[in-house]
Amino acid sequence: MIKAIVSGHSRGLGAAIVEALLARQLPVLGLARSALPARAGLSQCALDLADPAALTAWLAGPTLHDWLADASAVWLVNNAGQVQPIAALGEQDPQAIVQAINLNVTAPLLLSNAVLAASPHCVERRLLHVSSGAARHAYPGWSVYCASKAALDHHAQAVAAERHTGVRLVSLAPGVIDTEMQADIRAASLAQFPLRERFDALKANGQLTSPQTCAEHLVAALAHPAFGEVVLTDLRHG
Question: Where, by residue number, does the polypeptide cross the bilayer (predicted)?
Answer without folding.
Answer: none
